[in-house]
Specification:
Blueprint (H helix, E strand, L loop, with lengths): L10 E9 L2 E9 L5 E12 L5 E11 L3 H19 L20 H20 L9
Antiparallel strand pairs: 1-2, 2-3, 3-4
Length: 134
């Protein structure tokens, strides 16, 4: 049997929230000094044209000194959304009978091209950082 070496960044406590194409991971980890911090990871599933899958992952590191402020703002922002829009999901794409409307005006082509350029820029500017050595 192989002996497992203790990793200073080893997960201490974990929970998973599955939400459609997204999965959220909440992990308590330990610093080299023995203190705890929280990582929140989002993994989103995508499909290639050939039918194979790939995942995009984003991670937030949250330290104890930021817990109260983070929690206060998260609660405030989620309450604002609920107060303004309620709990019902109103996105068109979530409707069972959703059909994308086609508009043939030149302005829509410009908007669509701008949106594609914005997405490309976001992908090109993304840097995947790894803080496992904290």
């Amino acid at each position: 049997m192989e002996e497992k070496n203790y990793n200073a960044n080893e997960d201490i406590y974990s929970k998973i929230l599955r939400a459609g194409r997204r999965t959220y991971f909440f992990d308590v980890r330990s610093t080299k000094a023995g203190d705890y911090y929280l990582t929140i990871s989002e993994s989103k599933k995508f499909t290639n044209e050939d039918g194979s899958f790939y995942f995009k992952k984003h991670k937030i590191y949250l330290y104890k000194e930021d817990f109260q402020g983070f929690s206060d703002l998260l609660n405030e922002m989620t309450q604002y959304i609920i107060d303004e829009k309620g709990f019902e999901v109103i996105s068109d794409i979530h409707q069972k009978d959703y059909k994308k409307e086609e508009h043939n005006s030149p302005n829509n082509d410009i908007i669509e091209n701008n949106e594609k350029a914005d997405e490309k820029e976001k992908k090109e500017n993304f840097t995947d950082l790894d803080f496992d050595d904290i």
